[in-house]
Design brief:
The complex is a heterodimer of chains A (190) and B (456).
Chain A: H1 2-9, H2 11-31, H3 41-63, H4 69-85, H5 87-97, H6 103-130, H7 137-155, H8 162-165, H9 171-188
Helix pairs in contact in A: 1-4, 2-3, 3-4, 3-5, 3-6, 3-7, 4-6, 6-9
Chain B: H1 2-14, E1 20-25, E2 31-32, E3 35-46, E4 49-56, E5 66-73, E6 76-88, E7 93-99, E8 104-109, E9 115-116, E10 120-124, H2 129-135, E11 140-143, E12 158-163, H3 172-180, E13 184-188, H4 198-203, E14 208-211, E15 214-219, H5 224-230, H6 236-243, H7 255-275, H8 277-299, E16 304-315, E17 318-329, E18 333-337, E19 341-343, E20 349-352, E21 355-359, E22 363-369, E23 372-375, E24 378-381, E25 384-387, E26 394-398, E27 402-403, E28 412-414, E29 436-440, E30 443-447
Helix pairs in contact in B: 7-8
The chains are: A mainly alpha (190), B alpha+beta (456).
Chain lengths: 190, 456
């Protein structure tokens, strides 16, 4: 707990967390209805949340390949902690929006995708290092996430993209992410 | 030879050809579109069956919009008659079948040409064709049996019922239901009577009186057409529209307050993590649980809201009751409602003992319940108004006199001049002079003096 709190309190994560919460509050501000119209705030917030966490976890995973095991674990736990601490915002929107999706699916898939993409970021980073293209990493973070989404749109299936999967139950996406998450957990313990 | 015949008979019976299944929709097959119509299924010696009527009320643009009416019926030993009412919209196709678990016992389809919007004039007479000449081709005359339905909704599409004592008198219940439904019930007392209609005097002691939303009248055959034109009719659909105030979906929690609370939470979490170490993290975690719980409690609106409005049209001892339910559904759900009604919008649904249809997220639907019969809750005796219901009548207004005091249950009051009010300004133009309007919770009670002839 002490190590985790120290990791969370470091400047990089505090700044990232502040930006993350600011984005979520902005989503609520623009998505929340002013009158009696339909409340769609949850759909906006949950998709922004999962895409932001995906980019963050991919980026952080890519940076962890030369770090010790403890640092990798703490960073991943810190990201999962950020998801947990932002849960009240999602729950507030879920309570008011009445989406068809079960609440546990959106929360669970956000956690799972974060773990999976953390490992995927690390694997991509290892590949780029081998090709001596690690300078492209800061740009490729976002490009890679967009690529995953484009692939899913092209395949008309929810396989890799967190954006589609968070609002609609997708066993295919769950299976793929479970495999990636398992590999991630193996890697961070190596 | 005899043995062969016996074997053949047994085979035929086992095929069900000994069974008799007949379905009648409307009055003698005549239906009125956009109204409730009676259905009558007569069976003899059948096992448990299911009656299914399927209609497609879609258009070329909308595609198929199916409606299904389905009821399960118990086994019939001997003759069994099942009667009910079904709302019939303008349909593109209509098919029906009566089937048991193994096979279809009877089925059929209806010609689109048979569906018309004009209301029906029912004639109970040995010579119904004479009325066609008398009333003219603009009337949709349907000869009927003396055995009429006793349910008020069956007469939703009927404008006139004429009896002339050449056939046995229909039951008093049927005549009462017809009148209460808004039908002008005429008894022609100058036609040479084969049957005595003494009981009609019990129901209609005067030549003209209102009952519910309709009339019970005596006239001559020659004076029939003139009487039909003279007797004022109530526009019940317009009255219901005038009294129903749709409710908007629930208002969301104020966004400014929400952002302030969540913003304070975020600030506290960030500061406690940054400055308070592990104690700060634990506090942040506990606070997130608390805020989540509070958010769910205060922001969760009721999943379903039903807003209802009931209209009682009283005259004499009976009333017609018309109810509207507006359902606001926040999560999408398949609804199964335990009352006979129909959705006002064009959508797919199933009716029968229950009404079943699907409503999406944040959708509203208005349901019109099947009109029904009731006893009068607010009676006018001379100039005295009597509250026969169980609750307080308030906002009492008499057209021509003005506002009256509230009336408690079981009490009566003498009507007198009162202040003018614009409480029922949408309704007054539809009602005759002397009509009394009162409100009781979600109901509007309209009592019309039983023999007023003045047009609204």
């Amino acid at each position: 707990m002490k190590a985790l709190s120290y990791r969370l309190s470091r400047a990089d994560l505090v700044q990232i967390s502040t930006l993350f919460f600011a984005i979520l509050l902005f989503c609520i501000m623009i998505g929340w209805p002013q009158n009696t119209s339909e409340n769609r705030s949850w759909f906006i917030l949950v998709q922004v949340r999962i895409v932001t966490m995906s980019i963050l976890s991919f980026s952080y995973g890519a940076q962890q390949i030369h770090n010790p095991r403890s640092e990798r674990r703490l960073t991943l736990l810190a990201l999962l902690g950020l998801i947990f601490l932002s849960a009240p915002l999602e729950i507030a929107c879920y309570a008011a929006s009445f989406p068809n999706t079960a609440w546990w699916w959106a929360m669970g898939i956000t956690l799972l995708d974060t773990v999976a993409l953390f490992g995927l970021g690390a694997f991509v980073s290892m590949g780029l290092h081998k090709l001596r293209l690690q300078a492209l990493l800061p740009v490729l973070n976002i490009v890679f996430i967009v690529l995953l989404m484009t692939l899913d749109f092209g395949l008309k299936a929810s396989l890799l993209s967190p954006l589609l999967a968070v609002t609609v139950l997708s066993p295919l996406h769950l299976a793929v992410m479970l495999v990636l998450a398992s590999l991630t957990l193996v890697w961070i313990n190596l | 030879m005899v043995r062969s015949i016996w074997i053949l008979l047994v085979c035929l019976c086992s095929l069900g050809l000994g069974q008799d299944v007949r379905l009648e929709l409307g009055f003698k097959g005549e239906m009125v579109a956009e109204k409730w119509n009676p259905i009558r299924l007569v069976r003899r010696d059948t096992g448990p069956v299911t009656l299914t009527i399927e209609m497609d009320q879609g258009t070329l643009r909308e595609g198929v919009v199916p409606i299904m009416y389905q009821v399960n019926l118990k086994a019939a030993r001997g003759l069994d008659v099942f009667e009910d009412d079904i709302y019939i919209p303008f349909w593109r196709s209509m098919v029906w079948k009566v089937a048991d678990q193994q096979r279809v016992l009877a089925s059929g389809s209806l010609d689109r040409q048979a569906l018309r919007a004009e209301t029906i004039d029912l004639i109970i007479s040995k010579t119904p064709e004479t009325y066609l000449a008398l009333l003219g081709p603009e009337h949709r005359i349907v000869p009927a049996d003396d055995v009429l339905p006793k349910r008020l909704a069956s007469y939703d599409g009927v404008s006139t019922l004429i009896v002339d004592a050449s056939l046995p008198m229909p039951s008093l219940s049927a005549l009462s239901s017809a009148a209460a439904a808004g039908v002008q019930v005429f008894y022609l007392d100058d036609v040479s009577a084969t049957y005595a209609y003494q009981d009609f005097d019990l129901l209609a002691p005067k030549p003209r009186q209102r009952l519910g939303a309709g009339w019970l009248l005596r006239t001559s055959k020659d004076g029939l057409k003139a009487s039909m034109a003279l007797i004022p009719r109530l526009d019940l659909v317009a009255m219901q529209k005038a009294t129903f105030v749709p409710q908007l979906p629930p208002r969301a929690f104020p966004v400014t307050t929400l952002l302030m609370v969540l913003g304070a939470y975020v600030l506290f979490v960030l500061l406690s993590i940054r400055l308070m170490g592990s104690a700060g993290l634990v506090t942040a975690v506990l606070l997130s649980v608390l805020v989540s719980f509070a958010a769910w409690t205060y922001l969760r609106l009721p999943a379903q809201n039903i807003h209802s409005q009931t209209l009682f049209v009283n005259a004499g001892q009976l009333a017609q009751v018309r109810s509207i339910y507006q359902i606001t559904q926040l999560p999408s759900q398949m609804l199964r409602l335990p009352f006979q009604s129909r959705p006002v919008s064009t959508r797919s649904y199933q009716q029968g003992e229950f009404l079943e249809f699907s409503l999406g997220r944040w959708q509203q639907e208005t349901l019109q319940l099947k009109p029904r019969l009731s006893t009068t809750s607010l009676i006018l005796e001379g100039n005295r108004l009597i509250n026969q219901s169980q609750g307080l009548m308030q906002d009492i207004y008499v057209r021509g006199l003005g506002q009256q005091p509230n009336l408690a249950a079981g009490q009566s009051l003498e009507l007198g001049p009162g202040e003018e009010s614009n409480l029922y300004q949408n309704l007054l133009p539809l009602l005759p002079h002397g009509t009394i309007i009162a409100r009781q919770e979600q109901s509007i009670h309209i009592t019309i003096p039983s023999d007023t002839m003045v047009q609204p």
